[in-house]
Amino acid sequence: MLLVVTRNKKKIAAVAAGIVAICLALFAAVAVFSLQPLDKRADNKRLITIPDGASTKEIAVVLRQEQVIRNPWIFRMLTRWKHFDNKLQAGEYELSTAMTLPQILHKIAEGDTLSYVFTIPEGYTVEQIAALLSAEGLVNHDRFLELARKGLPPYESLEGHNPAVAYALEGLLFPDTYKIPQGMKEEEILAMMLRKFALTVTEDMRAQAAAEGLNMHQLVTLASLVEREAKVERERPIIAAVFLHRLKIDMPIQSCATIQYILGTPKQELSIQDTQIESPYNTYLHAGLPPGPIANPGLASIQAVLNPANTDVLYFVAKPDGTHIFSRTYEEHVLAIEQVDMMAVNKI
Predict the structure, then answer these.
(1) Which range of residues forms the domain containing residue 66?
(2) Phi, psi (degrees; rounded to nearest 5) at 95
(3) Could you tell me if 315 and 327 are in contact, meaning their C-beta atoms sit under 8 angstroms apart?
(4) What angle, 0 to 180 degrees and rounded to 10, lies between the N-to-C axes of helices 2-35 and 101-109?
(5) Dist CA 313 CA 4 (whole Å)
(6) Where would a tag sit more exposed on the chain, N or C end, judged by fewer CB atoms within 10 A?
(7) Within this chain, do residues 48 and 170 fall inside the same structural domain, yes or no?
(8) Do residues 176 and 97 both lie within one domain?
(9) Phi and psi for 250 in degrees, rounded to 5?
């Protein structure tokens, strides 16, 4: 009798072990299957938003509903096994049916969200930047301008700031190519561009400007004039020298670029009436620098102000190709204007 019971126990144990082995094999098969791409032959992309504060379970449900994973439970188990429970990040992701579950998990854990790249050209104004970014759907146009008008701590204004400036952040939004995640706020975009300015204009450059008697307001304002006037690299230091010479002898700067800033929209050729517009930015009517920068200058224009050409020219006039004729005297300047007029007539 004892022998029979022993045999039955062994048989039951063997059956149980067999069942466990089958279950483990089935689980392993399901797990391996769940780790594979949903459809590796068709790279169907999905834009999927992971909400702020979503739990691993909630994220798994979203991924299953969007049909990029097979098994939410396997996703949760893998997340726990990888110790990613508290590392999954909110944001908008571009996922695909051709991605494996581990690939999807790592992408979310690394915060590899969908990003946008935009380029701010050198010499763009605050208003042009707002128009560009709003056209791309990255900012609210009016809110961006309002923040740029007021300023952001600690960038409310430049040292030597004039309260008559149109935008406190004009000149400080450094022209560059930026990569941002979806949903970045206007404050964050502005702060990013301001940080780039602060990193680019080094302490040595600030000290060099101070040694030349220029505060940051004056440096960036002059650089913005150079940026808007210069069309070729080699002329930047010469144009900077013209403006610096004029300031030293209390001669009006008479920059057409300041009139264009007042007008707001580009004008092919300015009239005498344009130069008579009453505005603190009108450097034909008011001596010295305008209240603030008229654009956001690049590094080359800032460097040109810090390292102007060794020349005594006081005048320049633009040729049809965008380059300039530089003159030392007013008489030479009049002849240069006549030469440019002839070029225009003859379309040289």
Answers:
(1) 30-109
(2) -115, 165
(3) yes
(4) 60
(5) 116
(6) N
(7) no
(8) no
(9) 60, 40
Of 75, 109, 143, which closes a domain? 109
Q: Locate tokens 């005048």: which residue?
A: 315
pLDDT tens digits in sequence order for the chain, 348 residues long: 545 555 555 555 554 445 544 444 444 444 444 456 666 666 678 888 888 889 989 999 998 988 888 888 888 988 888 888 788 988 888 888 888 888 888 888 988 888 888 999 999 999 999 999 999 999 999 999 999 998 887 654 555 556 678 899 999 999 999 988 877 899 999 999 999 999 999 999 999 999 999 999 999 999 999 999 999 999 999 999 999 999 999 999 999 999 999 998 878 888 889 999 999 999 999 999 999 999 999 999 999 999 999 999 999 999 988 899 999 999 999 999 889 888 877 664
- Give the number of other Cβ atoms within 10 Å of residue 117's Cβ: 9
Question: In the beta sheet, which residues pair with residue 316?
Answer: 326
Query: For residue 245, what are its two tokens?
Result: 């010479």
What's the structural domain count of the chain?
A: 2
Burial class of 144 by CB neighbour count within 10 A (0 to 12, 13 to 18, 19+): buried
Same domain, 200 and 301: yes
CATH number at residue 49: 3.30.1490.480
Within this chain, do residues 55 and 185 fall inside the same structural domain, yes or no? Answer: no
* Cα distance between residue 126 and residue 296, in whole Å: 8
pTM > 0.85: yes or no: no
Token representation of residue 12 = 């039951």
Chain-centroid distance of CA 73 in Å reads 40
